[in-house]
Amino acid sequence: xxxxxxxxxxxxxxxxxxxxxxxxxxxxxxxxxxxxxxxxxxxxxxxxxxxxxxxxxxxxxxxxxxxxxxxxxxxxxxxxxxxxxxxxxxxxxxxxxxxxxxxxxxxxxxxxxxxxxxxxxxxxxxxxxxxxxxxxxxxxxxxxxxxxxxxxxxxxxxxxxxxxxxxxxxxxxxxxxxxxxxxxxxxxxxxxxxxxxxxxxxxxxxxxxxxxxxxxxxxxxxxxxxxxxxxxxxxxxxxxxxxxxxxxxxxxxxxxxxxxxxxxxxxx
Length: 268
Description:
268 residues; alpha+beta; 10 helices; NADH Oxidase
C-alpha cells in the first residue's frame, strides 16, 4: 500500500525534485565526462530530427567496446531505424524515437564457453545480464556525449524483459539469448526534465556489514516518486503504473524461468 501525501507534502516534494542538484566536489566540477554523466536524463519526447548514420555507428561501437566479464562479450544488439521498427513491429518506436536497440544477453554465441557452464544456468544468465547492461549504459552515455538523448525501457512497446516470451518468438532467439531492454534514441524535444529523486550517498554506501536505507529516507523517496509522477502525468499515477507492471510480471517470471532454467539439451 503506497502512502498518502497531503497537498503540502506534494508541493514540498515537487520543490525538492525541481531544485535537486548532483553533489560534486568543486575540484572536479569542470570534468566534461562527469558533466555528461551527471546531466543525462531519460527522455520520453523526441523530435523528428533523424540521427545521422555515423553518429549512430559511433554509439554502437561504444557498446561493442564496453567492458565484460573475462571479455566474454555476452551481448547482442537488435538494431532498428524508425522505418525498420515500424515494418517489423507494426507500430512506431515509443516516444517518437528515431533509432532503437534491443539489448540482449547472449550466452549462445560462444559454444565452447556455453558448454562449460551449461550446468550453471543462473550464473550464465547473471553474467550475460551484467555484461549486456554495461554495454547498454556505455551506448547510453556515448549517445549523450554526441548530443543524442535516450531512454532505456523494460516494458513500453513490448520490447523489454517483461515481454521476454514475445520477443523470444518475434526475434527467433535461440536458447541462451535473453531480451533485457530497449534503448530508444533521438534528439530531445523540449528541455530536459529535472533529476529524479535519488537516495543520498550515505544511504547506499557502507563499510563492513550491510545496514540498508533508513525507513524515513525510504518513505521520503517514495513520496517524491508519487508526487513527481503525478506532476509529470496528471491523468495517471505512480500506483497505476506499478499496477501495469504488476499485471505483466507474472507472465514475465514464467517466460524467463523457462528461458533460463529449462535445459533439456546443451546450448547449440
